[in-house]
Amino acid sequence: MAGIRESIHGQWSSRWAFVLAATGSAVGLGNIWKFPYITGENGGGAFVLIYLVCIVIIGVPIMMSEILLGRRGRQSPINTMRTLAIEAGHNTNWQWLGVMGVLAGFLILSYYSVIAGIALFHVFRTGVGTFDNATPDGIATLFNTFLDDPQALLFWHTVFMVMTMLVVARGVRGGIEKAVKFLMPALFLILLILLGYAMNTAAFDQGLSFMFKPDFHALFYYTNDAGIEVMTWNPVLIAMGHAFFTLSLGMGAIMVYGSYLPQNASIARVTFMIAGADTAVAIVAGMVIFPIVFANNLEPGMGFGLIFKTLPLAFGQMPGGAFFGTLFFILLTFAAWTSSISLIEPAVAWLVENRGMSRAGASVLSGITCWLFGLLTVFSFNIWSDVYPLHMFEVFREKTIFDLLDYLTANIMLPLGGLLIAIFAAWLMSRDATRDELDMGEGPAYISWRVLVRYITPIAVSIVFLRAIDLI
Predict the structure, then answer these.
(1) Contact 437, 267 (CB under 8 A)
(2) Which residue in 34, 141, 229, 425 is deepest, having the highest Cβ count within 10 Å?
(3) To 5 degrees, how large is the angle CA 208–CA 210–CA 213?
(4) How far apart are CA 334 and CA 340, in angstroms?
(5) Residue 343 within a domain
(6) Which residues form the domain of 79?
(7) Is 360 part of a structural domain of the chain?
(8) Residue 4 falls inside a structural domain
(9) What is the pLDDT of residues 306-320, one digit of tens each?
(10) pLDDT by residue (tens digit) across 116-133?
């Protein structure tokens, strides 16, 4: 190995601590809030299949590459890319890949915190029985009234951001590791309890059929305003973007967590564990949500408000609904919390390394900055709800600031970051360096990773981008 580096931030106490932390980063709102509603919007089973293919041929190889870069650099993503570029004899401008990752994490956390605040508010609203025997119109009115109130959104956005800063300020082992060791097992337990409930609903088979019976025609074709059937590749772009989003790729989180990984831990093994756990949570979340939706004759393609409009109605009508509903929104909050910690960590690590700040000071500064950016999302739900900054472009015509942030990060910045990570790891780093970190020898496993990350993954990402450009 070219020099043994050590992170000034410490490292995980064990491989399992890293797996829990990285799984916590991956398992978040993307699995429990976003995956079900984009699956509902894109027809169910066919979309799920495309998503799983993206995880295998794109997500796993790039996650291995990002962990590899992080552990070899042992610094924040920006400094890691600069150090590794120098080590490989290339231009230090590669540090801008780290900058883009940190920026993507910032932008995601800015709106992520607002959505997490809504989930946190629903814990209390469900627990006091607000939704008991409520009508669909009544719940929709409650939700829309809440979104229309910028002060209420701002309050819960602030509470959640403070929760995040408190954990990150305590450091790698004292804060992040301790938090995920409690939050992740609790999250899995709550999800299994809710799955047990869903299995006893009358529509469990219907929910499974929706998720696992593919209809590719419905996925790739839609009828335009002129009544003409048109083919679209947009669902593939969405599936690929979500694979990056849900695995926390391209946003610096996995790279900085990898920098704390013990040297004797197998990158391949922990990657498959993280990807497997993350995908299982997304699938199980769908198996929980869709049967409840169908059992109550609700619409699975309701978009952003799916879990905030349809599930409270279901919980309000079922026996023990207040209990199960509260559990569900606690689950959603825990998932968001473990992810938000990882989203802010790359910026905190850079401030500590480059500006000599304490972790507490860096956490507060980063948190306040994200909180300020979050105001854009808060106001896009109410006083700026009719503001469409890029309305002159057809594809962005009806996208609010929140919609643009979601689209820019999930569908552009994260895949682009992942593509550049693959190129750097497979083409610019030496074969000896990557083999040294992956510790696979020259066997089939290493060759498979190298072929995927050098050729198949970059080509797949590039093709989807080209198809997306054709749609604009």
Answers:
(1) yes
(2) 425
(3) 90
(4) 10
(5) yes
(6) 15-471
(7) yes
(8) no
(9) 788 877 877 887 778
(10) 999 999 999 998 888 888
